[in-house]
Amino acid sequence: MTTETITWHPVAERLPDDDTTVLLAVECDDEPTWPGFHSEGGWYYVSGARVAARVTHWADMPGGPKG
């Protein structure tokens, strides 16, 4: 079994390609990591709801188990 490393990118330095699903790190007290995407200058959860909290970092989605 291999271990996958998740690399977090500060949004101040780099943004993902628009409409690409990524992991979002948001500024809040509970469950701060969610799948979502960036589009037209805003952040959205995969449900389509706009992210109200400040997104600080993002990471590419992990690949999961290979087999």
Can you offer a commentary on this structure?
The chain is mostly beta strands. It has one domain (9-60). Helix content is 0%, strand content 36%. The protein has strands spanning 9-10, 22-26, 33-39, 42-45, 55-60.
Describe this structure in a few short sentences.
By secondary structure, the protein is mainly β.
What's the SSE blueprint?
Blueprint: E1 9-10, E2 22-26, E3 33-39, E4 42-45, E5 55-60
Antiparallel strand pairs: 1-5, 2-3, 2-5, 3-4
Q: N-to-C SSE series?
A: EEEEE
For the secondary structure, the number of strands is: 5
- Rough shape? globular
What percent of residues are in strands?
A: 35-45%
Tally of domains: 1
Compute the number of helices.
0
Biggest pleated-sheet summary: 5 strands, antiparallel
Query: What is the gyration radius calculated from CA atoms?
Result: 12 Å
Helix content: under 10%
Strand order of the largest sheet: 1-5-2-3-4
SSE-based structural type: mainly beta
**N-C termini distance:** 10 Å
Mean pLDDT metric: 90
Note poorly predicted spans.
none
Properties at a glance:
globular; 67 residues
